[in-house]
TrEMBL record:
Name of the protein in its database record: Peptidase A1 domain-containing protein
GO biological process: proteolysis
Signal peptide: 1-17
InterPro entries referenced in this protein's UniProt entry, alphabetically: Aspartic_peptidase_A1, PEPTIDASE_A1, Peptidase_aspartic_dom_sf
Amino acid sequence: MRFSLFFVSQLLTFGLCSEESKEDINVFGQSQDGIDIDKQKGRFPDTDIDSVNMVRIGDMYYVPILAGTPPQYILTLPDTQIQTTIFADLLCINCYSGIKIWPKFSNYQSSTFKTIQRVFDRNDRYYSEYGYFGYETVSIGSKTLEKAVLDITTNMTDVPKYFYSGTRYLSTEYLIPNPSLHNVYNTGVLGLGYPLENISNDVFFSRNNSILNFLGEKKFVTIDLREDGGKFSLGLKKNTNETIVWTKPDGNAGFGFKLDSYTFANGILPLTDMTAEVNPRYEEIYMDSDIAYKINTYAIKQYPNCTGFNGKHIAAFTSGNYTLKLFPQYFMELEEGVCKSKIIPIDPRFISPKKIIFGQSFLRGNAMVLGYEEPKIGFIEKTFQDIMPAKLI
């Protein structure tokens, strides 16, 4: 059963948790797909790029990171809309029932965690809860440094509803995995958002704790899901025969970009004041209800049983020189014998219909580049000569 989307200003997803038991997946030794996480670290000796193989569970890809001393593996969902990295503490005894996150990290077991302040602190005769904002040793690939994180602990059944991340309120339900998947597993969130500026120091999470600290001179992050095994890279990771096509930025301090038009059923329709973001924190694609209805109706009519995909895209959105194509094999899925779409109408009560969020249902089959020198997002493609058909001689 799909959940209702509750977007406030922070574009957060609410929902129910998968009913899968804790014993069904052991992602800290081997994943469901047999991926040995202890062998995830990799380095490209001829470049300044660090890469880790992303871990696939169900239809979602996670970035494995190490945190603390001794190091503890944490599977994180990359998020392009926040700067904060979030873990749940082992002392958060009701985290699974309350905020549906598997506690793995513990600052009480780590010799490196440095508490700066309590983000929230609530006590009464029945329960207590704490949020710790501090610095922790975090490793991605071969790069290790201190990064500001949020660590949640509680001994209550009712969890805090909101906390700060920069200027935004984030709901603790933001940590809830996507309920539409049977095998979703979440132990943290890796903030990839563009750094906040001009935020006063008395605001929680106002400090610049972004992914920038992990990056070299060329400030890029690459998320490549073109192959079955995704790869997360600190740096620009592309082959020599590939080029980057950048989207048209929307002018705001973030990774949003403008959409010019969309193609559907052999027709091109202009889009006015429409912006988009790509955020692998979500699986679904969120868009205006009218556009979502047209695409979903056509897709289900073409593939009523979620079979027979021919490799062609159903709809496409243009941003500058790049075209974002929607392939049905990535956003359509058979659930209990019914073919359903992962394109979800947004609720105009909470967010403007002039906004589209592309989740992993779009990103699969693509390689995305985030540029931090100035906020921009691009996609890696083969050069024109490589995709031209061979000439007959």
